[in-house]
Amino acid sequence: MKYDYLRRSHNKIYKRKNIIYKFFKSPKSYNTEKNFYLNYKDKFNCIPKIYYYSDKRFCIIIENVGKRIRKKNINFHKIHEINNELLSENIYHNDYRVKNILYNAEKDKYYFIDFEHVGSYFNDFRKSPESDDIRAELFVI
């Protein structure tokens, strides 16, 4: 059976109340993100739980931990602490954008998502509009 529901587009994401389905176009991105969630699911509480993955369909199902918020509403002190927690394990998110931060108002907690570019070194290749970019708040550039 051929799964061609992504066609020529980017990843597809379907959000439900408690879970997020993420289908990947690239096997490399899929494996990078899946392996990060599997390897660090018990290590960090600033990432969503992974519930399921399919190597055949390049799909992961993760916990929906919160909602996106605007850059002006982010507490960068807390985000900096989360980033330092990842850096202490030599983990760089490498896609430092507002859209990759979720906030759970009930828990007053921030989460990083979208780990398809995660690595053991800083890679500054992701260019984002200034309104979405948070590298300056996390690193001295």
Care to give the gist of this entry?
The protein is of the alpha+beta class. The chain has three helices and seven strands.
Describe the structure.
The protein has 141 residues and is of the alpha+beta class. The protein is 21% helix and 21% strand. The protein contains 3 helices and 7 strands. It has helices spanning 27-40, 76-87, 135-138; strands at 12-15, 19-23, 50-54, 59-63, 67-68, 101-104, 109-112. The strands form 2 sheets. Strands 1-2-4-3 form a 4-stranded antiparallel β-sheet, covered by helices on one side. Strands 5-6-7 form a 3-stranded antiparallel β-sheet. The model is unreliable at 1-6 (pLDDT under 50).
- The H/E string reads EEHEEEHEEH
Indicate the percent of residues in helices: 10-25%
Give the radius of gyration: 15 Å
Q: CA-to-CA gap between the ends? A: 47 Å
Strand order of the largest sheet: 1-2-4-3
> Which regions are unreliable across 5 or more consecutive residues at pLDDT < 50?
1-6
- Main beta-sheet annotation: 4 strands, antiparallel
Mean pLDDT: 89
* Shape estimate: globular
Continuous helix count: 3
Our estimate of the beta-strand percent is: 15-25%
Number of E strands? 7
Structural class computed from helices and strand pairing: alpha+beta
Keyword list:
globular, 7 strands, 141 residues, alpha+beta, four-stranded antiparallel sheet
Strand-helix topology:
Layout: E1 12-15, E2 19-23, H1 27-40, E3 50-54, E4 59-63, E5 67-68, H2 76-87, E6 101-104, E7 109-112, H3 135-138
Antiparallel strand pairs: 1-2, 2-4, 3-4, 5-6, 6-7
